[in-house]
Amino acid sequence: MLNQIGAVTLLNLRSIPQRAGLSLATIISIALVTGVLLGFLAMSNGFRATLQGTGSESVAVMLRAGSQAELNSGLSSDQVRLIEEAPGIARDADGTALVSGELFVIADGIKRSSQTEANLPLRGVGEQALRLREGFELVEGRMFETGTNELVVGEAVLREFSGFELGETIRLGPNEWVVVGIFSTGGSVFDSEIWADIAVIQNLYNRGTGVQSIRARLTSPEAIEELRAYEENEPRLNLDIQSETDFFSGQAGGTAVLIEFIGWPLAIVMAIGALAGAWNTMYSSVDTRMREIATLRAIGFSGFAAAVGTMVESLVLAAIGGLVGAGAVYLLFNGISASTLGSGFTQVVFSFAVTGGSVIAGMVMAIIIGFLGGLVPAIRSAYVPLLTVHRSE
Amino acid sequence: MNDLTLIRKNLFRKKLRAILLTLSILIAFLIFGVLGAFHTVWTSGGALAADNRLITVNRINFTVSMPFAYWNRVAAIEGVENVAHASWFGGYFQEQTQQVQTFAVDPATYLAAYPELTMPAEQRQAFLDTRDCLLVGTDLAGQYGWSVGDTIPLLSNIWQKTDGTSSWTFNICAIFDAEDDKVPANYAVFHYDYYNEALAFNSDQVGWLIINTTDPSFNDQVSRAVDELFANSPSETETTTEAAFNEAFANQFGNIALILLFVVGSAFTTILIIVGFTMVTAINERTGEIAVMKTLGFPAPRIFRMVLAESVMLSLVGGLLGLGLANLMISGVADAAAAFLPGLALSAQVFWVGVGLAILLGLLTGIVPAINAQRVKIITALGKQ
C-alpha cells in the first residue's frame, strides 16, 4: 500500500512540469495570500513590539487623574516635590530622589514618506530623565546644554522625518533649535521623540514651572503600591499612577489590534479566491491524467493511492506558495521602518517585524488552502471510472 | 445559434471550472469594491472641504492653542468673509473609554463657516440663544440615544474648572445633520463662552480658526496675510486650505493609499494569473473543435473575437457579482460605521473603475488564448486526434 502511494505521488510530482502554467498560478496565488497576511501581521507585530519594548516595571508614570495621555495632563512643580519625598522612590548615592518632571508638547515635523507635517513629541527633560531610561545612549554628538536652544533627537525621528540631521538648525514654531545629538534607547517609543531642556520649553511655551508627567524610579516594582497609598492620603496630589510598562502596553492595544482586524479578514477572503484557483488547478491535474490514473487502477493500484497522490501534489504546491510568500515578505518588508499616529497623538516609529509565529500562521493558512483545494479532486481521482476512460480511446 | 449562445455554452461547458473561476474573480472585485469605498471615505476629507475654507493653526502644531484675540484680528483682513474659532474639549461621556468629539466654538460664526450643517430653524435659534446648549451631530446622538431636551454632563480629559472638577453640564437643544452622508455628523459643539469662563487654566485661548474667504482666488492672499500678521509673535500661525489640512492629517496615519494599492494589486495579480493560465488550458483543450469550426467556414477573426468575448464575459460576470456583493456588504455596515467612517458607500466612480478593470482583465486573460485559437491549423489540429 505504502509503495503504491509513494509511486503515485512521485508520478504526480514529476508530472507537475507538464502543468507548469496552472501549477505556477496556484503557487503564486497562495504566495500572494500568505504575503498579504504576513504583511499585515508584520505591521501589527512591529508596532506592538515597539510599545511593549518600552518602559520598565520599576518606573512609575504619574499623570493628572483622568487625563489619560501625557499631552492632556498638567502638574505643578509642588507636586513634583511631593513625589520626591514619597515612599517607595529610589535614591542615588547622594540621596537625590530619582524623579523626573517632564513636559510634553507636540511640534510639527516633515514626514519623509509623504512630505507632509506630522505630530512629533517634543519632550522637555531635566538631568534625571536619562537615569529613568535604561539603555539610553548618545549615538552621535552630545547632550544639549541646559538653558540653550539645543535639541537631541531620537534615531527613529531622524529616519522618518527630514531636517533633523546632526548640526542642522530647525524651526519649531517661532523658535529655532540646533540638533546637537542623536540618541537611541534601543528601539523604544522614546526613539520617536525630540528632547530639549525643560526650563527652555517651559519658558517658550509659557508653562511657568509646570510639568505634564512625572516619572520616578521605584525601589522595586512592588513599591508602586506604597506610592499609590501615599497619593491617596495626600490631598495635594490627584494622580493616576501606572508602571511604565503598563502605560505603554495599554497604548499598544488599539492600533495593533486594528491592523490585525483588517489583515485577517482580508487574508481569509483572498484565501477563498486562492482556494478556487487551487481547486481548479488540481481538477485540471486530475483531468489531464485521467487515462494515466485509469491505467494505474487497471493494473491494481488502489483508488486511495490515487487520491493520496493528488492530495500530496496539492499540499506541495500550497507549501511552496506559502514559503515563497513568507520569504518575499521577509526580504521585502522585515525591518522596514514606518510610522503612524499612536494613542499619545504623536507619531510612533516602528519597524515591520516578521515573527516566527506569524510565519507559522501563514503556512497553516497555505496548507489549509492546499488541503481544501485538493480534497474534491483527490476524491474524484479515487473514483475514476475505469471503463468509460478506456472506452473513450 | 448565434455567437453569443456559442460563447455562453463554451464558457459553462465545464460548470465547476466556470464557477471556480467566477468565484476567484468575484473575490478580487469584492476586495476592490470594499477597499475602494473605504479609500473614498478616507480621502473625502479633501474632497468635502469647501474650496474657500482655510484653517489657521498654531505654527508649532495644531494641538497648540493661540490667543483668543486672533479671531477678531483675522476678521479685519481683506478677502475674509467669515472667521470662526474652535477649541478641542477632549470630552468623554460617563466613562473615559466613551470619547465624544467635542469642540468649543463661537456659535454664529461656526454655523456660518459650515453652511452644509442642517437643522430645524427653531433648533438653530435655540443653539444660538442658549448658553449651555450642546449642538449634537445626528450620528453621535444615535450612538448614545440622546435627543433634544436631554441634559447631559460631559467630562474633559484636558480641562479643569476653577472649582476643581472637569465636568460641564449641557442641555441638548439642537441636533444637526447634513444632506451629504459623507459630511461627518459624529461630533458636538457648544458655546466657547460657557466653557472659557469656567476654565482654571489656558483661558482666552482658542485651538484653531476657520476662515471663509470671499472667493477661492483670495485663498493664497488671505493665508499669507494671516500668517504675516502674527509673524514674530509668540504664537505664529500656519494657514492652509481645509483640503490640505485634512490631507496632512490623514497622512499622519501612514500611507494608507499605498497599503490599499498593495492589497488590491495582490488580489488582481492572483486572479490574472489563475484566470490567464486556465483560459490558455481551456482553449488548448478545444483545439480540435476550433479546427472543426474553421473547416465549417468560421473565419479566423471571428474565432479570435469569440474567444476574447468568452474571457471578457467571464470576467464581467465575476466582476459585477463581486461589486454587487461589495455594495451589499458596505450598505450592511454603513450605519454601524457612521460614527467612524461617515458616508461609507460604493461610489459610482469606484463602480465604473471596477467595470473597466473587469473588461481589462477579460482582455488580458483572453488575448493569448484568442491568438492561439486564431492560429489553429486545421491539418495539424485534426491530425492530432
Automatic annotation (TrEMBL), chain A:
Compartments (UniProt record): Cell membrane
Keywords, alphabetical: Cell membrane, Membrane, Transmembrane, Transmembrane helix
Ranges for domain ABC3 transporter permease C-terminal: 267-382
Transmembrane segments: 21-43, 261-282, 318-336, 348-376
Domain annotation MacB-like periplasmic core: ranges: 23-229
Protein name according to UniProt: Putative ABC transport system permease protein
InterPro entries linked: ABC-4/HrtB_transporter, ABC3_permease_C, MacB_PCD
One Gene Ontology cellular component: plasma membrane
Principal localisation: membrane
Membrane topology: Multi-pass membrane protein
TrEMBL record, chain B:
Taxonomic lineage: Bacteria, Pseudomonadati, Pseudomonadota, Alphaproteobacteria, Maricaulales
Keyword Cell membrane among UniProt keywords: yes
Intracellular or extracellular location(s): Cell membrane
Topology term for the membrane: Multi-pass membrane protein
Keywords, ordered alphabetically: Cell membrane, Membrane, Transmembrane, Transmembrane helix
Gene Ontology CC: plasma membrane
Keyword Magnesium: no
PANTHER family noted in UniProt: ABC TRANSPORTER PERMEASE, ABC TRANSPORTER, MEMBRANE PROTEIN
Source taxon at top rank: Bacteria
Name of the featured protein: Putative ABC transport system permease protein
Domain ABC3 transporter permease C-terminal residue range list: 263-373
